[in-house]
TrEMBL record:
Residues 294-465 form the 3'-5' exonuclease domain. SUPFAM superfamilies: 5' to 3' exonuclease, C-terminal subdomain, DNA/RNA polymerases, PIN domain-like, Ribonuclease H-like. Residues 1-251 form the 5'-3' exonuclease domain. One of its GO terms (molecular function) is DNA binding. The gene is polA_2. The keyword Hydrolase applies. This is DNA polymerase I. The keyword Hydrolase applies. It holds the Pfam family 5_3_exonuc_N. It comes from the Bacteria.
Amino acid sequence: MAFRAFYALPAENFATDTGQHTNAVHGFVSMLLTMIRQQKPTHVAVAFDLDTPTFRSLEYTEYKAGRNKTPEEFHGQIDLIRKVMEAMNIPSISMDGFEADDILATLAAKGEAAGFEVLVVSGDRDAFQMITEKTLVLYPKKGISDIPPMDGDAVEAKYFVRPEQYSDLAALVGETADNLPGVPGVGPKTAAKWINLYGGLPGILENIDNIKGKVGESLREHVDNVTRNRRLNHLLTDLELPVGFEAMVLDRPDREAVEELFDALQFNTLRKRLFDLFGDDPVEAAEEEPIPAHELLQDAAGLETWIGAHGAQLLGLHAATVTSAGATDVVGLAFASNDATAFISLEEIDEETEKALAQVLSSESHTKTVHDFKRTYKLLKNRGFELAGVHDDTMISAYLIQPDRRSHELPDIAQQHLRISLDETKAAANGQLALDLEGPDLATPAVRAAHVVRALSLHLAPMLLERGGTDLLKNLEMPLSLILAHMEMSGIAIDTARLDELYDDFTTTINRATEEAFAAIDGQEVNLSSPKQLQVVLFETLDLPKTKKIKTGFTTDAESLADLLVKTGHPFLVALMAYRDATKLRQTVEGLRKAVASDGRIHTTYAQTVAATGRLSSLNPNLQNIPVRSEEGRRIREVFVVGDGFQTLLTADYSQIEMRIMAHLSGDEGLIQAYEEGEDLHRFVGSHVFGVEPAEVTNEMRSKVKAMSYGLAYGLSSFGLSKQLKISVDEARTLMKDYFARFGAVRDYLRAVVDQARKDGYTETIFGRRRYLPELASDNRQLRDIAERAALNAPIQGSAADIIKRAMLGVEKGLADAGLKSRMLLQVHDELVLEVATGELETVEQIVREKMGAAAELSVPLDVHVGAGTSWQDAAH
DNA sequence: GTTCAACCGTT
DNA sequence: GACGTACGGTTGAACC
């Protein structure tokens, strides 16, 4: 059935983010749920084949030979199905030396004897021999949804024999899939005729000499096939099964295990179907422990009374918001303590109440917990409230516990950790409840969320402690969150006139490139942005050499186009590449243009719980991928300028921070020495790898070791290195060998990191940030390799992320302590951009150098490069 | 209107 | 046969 599901569902549509295919698992579980819903069995068991030889293959070595190899995408899915069965408390049975169908036949026979009615689900027609008055077979017609029950009459209607004679028929006809040839020339019709004439195979064999014609001859010639087939297709009904019926009683699934597994498999509709089926509705589960009814706080006195009674407790806080015309506003606040909840509307609030509320929100002594502190802080700030005393952000806690999770939204983590459904919160977030929010019951969902946040906070705290993440939460991420909120609110000033000019310039380039491209293909006009149309032009019209294969044909990516240009020199390629570059730049410019707010500045949003390594990410717009490598691209950096009332922009970046972390973590004497002496790292490494004086290291040698050094932290292979440097794999291998001969501690470290991660199940940064990598133990080689590279990289990239985050806390404190007006605006992984107030440049530079340099005590110095200028581009050069 | 595939920008 | 981390965002095309 797993195989049926595998072929019925397209593998490419069922895969997790990590690349594990799940179509067979999905289909199998889906079918099983349908069966359970339709047939309402009291007992369920699942049987599996093993890879080991069976009595059939031992007797007939050709049994099932000649089958196509199991497709790559099927790998591992059987084990996953077994895990799902375990989570559902359904026994899965397999027996060395026997096939799944033998187990089923035994179960059917024993079940009947015990008085059960039996349903066998199998994709193998041999199962028809099990059919009796009490046993039916569910046999899939096609796909996974059409699985009608077959009884004796159904078999007879289809094959013209009774089920107990089906094996005789199959023996005569043969079974290609099992490599069991039957009698040539005899199909189901002839076989059925003989069986009905002679009463079965024994009768046929008795009368074998009386059967006339070519088919009779054929039968006599191949009678050995028939007897062998009959012996092999007979299913055993007397195995000693390791599991009794009592273990097969259909039980409720192990909720925890199913949730965890379905999270990993990314099954969401199936999860709902499963829990619906078992009457295990998450909403019901939550209702077992009702949320205290909320009090509506009307005035200052009401608020103060409630806070007086409950405010000494940790308070769950949730802001009720309404979004209209793209702007989101807080319209009310919900509080939850251990045994009470309250809601206060902000819509018609008097001055006195506003003041009382402001006091509660800003008070350090009223400890609070929220989900997404940064967002809440900004929303409240907009409304004139300062939020403080927040000890936990459940979004960040959940992230530190499971940084790989795709979503850390409140409904998702509430579902996972507390089994509480917050669909209405989700719907509200998606704007689907916008109308309802106008209605009277704005409070209930907000209160529910506040209650859940508090419960989650208490639930996650011990988990985080156990994983050593409490310090990161309290002393790094929470204070950082506040800094990020301020950076986002500050935004960065934009020279919009310049931005418009750039747009026009790039448009001109695009138009010119488009004309040139069309001219190069005889005036044919295609959409140069359509890879599909480009494929036609490149590989059909122009008949250029084929590039690397991708799903939809052949790739047209930049690297391949450059390759093709070298090979063919075709002018279309030149124009196309120019078009690509210019459209990409114009699209970046257009994105920025749309993002300029009414204050003339761009306010990005930092995602603090997205990157699994601990880095930040930037969105709406992404200011961490503004072009810098090309001349044209750098022009875009010129539009990021110092704002009114400030003197200059300042950028400060760590030089080679990841290599320095590598030197520190590996303890490699050579690397450490290079950094202590302040030498050009790549020159130093090059001189050792190539055995020449530093001054004799050529640019080519330098760029080779540079690529090598950087690649190391990403798990680069000799193949990858050869490709990048356009050298032979042999040469790349020699380069790596020479590198490690001189810097062996690096290799030892990289190996040790993976070994340790395999042992622990996670990697750790210098500051204790963990990343769990269960797929290090996967038996899927590709997944395992990916996990191994992630294990190499996570401590390095993650430590760098920790360090700059610590630096940001230091810089913020330094600026505040010195009473400066200058402020941080942007973070780009190893770089900070600040806006410096008039007269503060020297002090700010000194603070930034000191704090960034002191963010970590490594065995090598942290080198910081600082620059100032009126634009981001000027500042950096 | 939504989702997927391809592509490409940064570190 | 595959082969470098971590991201966000746009476009075209296919689909509902």
